[in-house]
Amino acid sequence: MSAFSPEMRTRAEQLVAVYPQRRSALIPLCHLAQEQEGYLTEALMIEIAELTGVTPAEVRGTVTFYDMLHTEPVGRYVVSVCTNIACLLAGGQEMLEHAEGKLGIRAGGTTQDGRFTIEEAECLADCDIAPCVQVNSRFVRTTTTDALDSLIDELSSGDRSDIPPHGTLIRVQRSVGLVADPKEVEAQRTKVRLADSKASS
Amino acid sequence: MSVTDAPKIVTQRRHYDDSFTQERFLATGGYDGARKALKMTPPEVCAQVDAASLLGRGGAGFPAGRKWSMLRKADLAYLVINGDESEPATFKDHLLLESDPHQLIEGAIIASFALQVNQAFIYVRGEFALGLERVQQAVNDAYAYGALGNDIFGSGFSLDLVVHPGAGAYICGEETSLIESLEGKRGFPRIKPPFFPAAIGLYGEPTVVNNVETISNLPWIISNGGDAFAALGETPSTGTRLFALAGHVKNPGVFEIEMVKNTFRDLIFDPSLGGGLSRGGSLKAFIPGGVSAPWLYEEHLDIPLGQKQVDDAGSMLGSGSIVVMDSNTCMVRAAWRITKFFSKESCGQCTPCREGSGWLERVLYRLEHGEGRIEDLDLLLDLCDNISPGLAWPPQQTTICVLGPSIPSSIHSAISRFRDEFLTHIKEGACPHG
């Protein structure tokens, strides 16, 4: 039985087909697994190994290397606070400590209700709006402790539908195969030629 | 001196709210460069990029044209675009990915055609959820428009472009590590020389890895000619460049300005750019090119923003990110935090980097927290010397990649210039900044 749901299994197979060599789909498949379960279960890692033609140990080896891939459950909302140099100069450390106090957990921990995880992040590349905070890899741009408090309250009461649960990284799926269907291509060509001739006439 | 009036090349659409859409892109000259390139021959396209003397915008500053010319002739080759921006305080590719993904795709078409490559990848940093969505949407739109896929614009040239998400690892910005990651592996840099990606890259095939900003310059270069690009700036640092300015300045942000013709003083103090220090006081130091670069000071403000000029001053322009630190900054704390970053992000392959970064971090931690000893200063420099012998610039290397030799930069800078601050921490048994 597949550890992926039928819908996710289809998407997984499509992802594998995109790459010249299927092992390249390993990290995208890990993101997909997290979209389904929130973290990488043993069964999902074994299935990813089958899909990509590597051993389960290799999947685990890759998974444990990357910060965004989790082998244990994390909160529905992963709050990442950057304390690297540009954010440090703007109070990133104090922001992290404030988040810890607000949620009653230390960085790396998850609240008992499974709603929030706090991470101390390295530079997230949004240094002009510092200190930088992300929730589930989305920039939320709360640069004051008050704004962070409001955000956490909104997330708690379910008012932030713009931020999908942890694991859902890319909501836009690739709409075409490895090389587009020739018939489809010809239809598009005709459309473009028509538009071009209209524009020039 | 005022900031020179150069055209906006990679940020030309930035001021539009819908700059990321295909509609806006097509209404503002989108694909003009690609259409023109596809009517040229591949060597002619390469010649334009050579004439532009475009330097890689990722950090190493290697000439893009030369990198292309090194590609081993083979039936199968790949282009990989590096969008794994993670050098601390660098946030320009983040802007390009979110604000103008179609321009990047157009650049990918031009580069792929010039290299006669039919398969390209955009590796986007995993933490850029919005960037990933914008780029994937743009790729979908480009296929539908006929700008990707088979027989692009009726030219007979075909290109498949895959958007690949990273998963959080600084080291994957290093090109061989990025290739490993794209093969589904841990991001371990490969040993080079002898074989650079241009000879043995993705899946063992010849591969060109170019930065997002480098590729984003190509549409303008082809549309306007390599010579027009080279007329901006000053050889070898031609064109404009994105500078990401952060820290204690009034207007932090990404600015596209002409290279060489403007200085650090312009960038930090000009009202149209950084606007000066945000909290008053005076300038204590600035990091000129990402945290891997040695620090510069007040006396370096009039150095032009050019690769060679900054190299000559003993640092580097690197990834084009500048962190400004004012007189109220604790330099021990700054050096500690930067070292903590390297310690966490070391991939662990090479002993000097893996062990050295952790030792350095712990020694700096105790200094910052008032538990340091006077011997610690020599200990730090000795450890740095073990990672990068002689503490020279450019650094000597004892490791597979340059992450290791980047670690000493901030520590060496802080101890050389601000030794007194370290001594105060030791004497007072606490950080004077609290």
Number of strands of chain A: 4
* Number of beta strands of chain B: 10
- Span between termini of chain A: 59 Å
Beta content of chain A comes to 5-15%
Order of helices and strands of chain B: HHHHEHHEHEHEHHHEEEEHEHEHHHHHH
Order of helices and strands of chain A: HHHHEHHEEEHH
Main interface by residue count = A-B, 59 and 72 residues
Helix content of chain A: 40-55%
Percent strand of chain B: 5-15%
- Which strands sit side by side, in order, in the main sheet of chain A? 2-1-3-4
Question: What characterizes the major β-sheet of chain A?
Answer: 4 strands, mixed
Shape of chain A: globular
Q: What is the CATH class of the largest domain in chain A?
A: Mainly Alpha
User: What is the count of DSSP helices of chain B, taking H or I runs of 4+ residues?
Assistant: 19
CATH fold annotation of the largest domain in chain B: Rossmann fold
**Gyration radius over CA of chain A:** 21 Å
- Low-confidence parts of chain A lasting 5 or more residues at pLDDT below 50? none
Strand order of the largest sheet of chain B: 3-2-1-4
What is the terminal-to-terminal distance of chain B? 39 Å
Secondary structure topology:
The complex is a heterodimer of chains A (201) and B (434).
Chain A: H1 6-18, H2 26-37, H3 42-52, H4 56-63, E1 77-82, H5 85-88, H6 92-103, E2 116-121, E3 133-135, E4 138-139, H7 145-156, H8 182-200
Parallel strand pairs in A: 1-2
Antiparallel strand pairs in A: 1-3, 3-4
Helix pairs in contact in A: 1-2, 2-3, 3-4
Chain B: H1 22-27, H2 32-39, H3 42-52, H4 64-69, E1 78-83, H5 92-99, H6 101-115, E2 119-124, H7 129-145, E3 160-165, H8 175-182, E4 207-211, H9 212-216, H10 218-224, H11 226-230, E5 233-234, E6 237-238, E7 240-247, E8 253-258, H12 264-269, E9 283-287, H13 307-312, E10 321-326, H14 331-345, H15 351-368, H16 375-387, H17 403-406, H18 408-417, H19 419-428
Parallel strand pairs in B: 1-2, 1-4, 2-3, 7-10
Antiparallel strand pairs in B: 5-6, 7-8, 9-10
Helix pairs in contact in B: 2-6, 2-10, 3-6, 5-7, 14-15, 14-18, 15-16, 16-18
Pfam families (chain B): Complex1_51K (PF01512), NADH_4Fe-4S (PF10589)
Keywords (chain B): 4Fe-4S, Iron, Iron-sulfur, Metal-binding
Family (chain B): Belongs to the complex I 51 kDa subunit family.
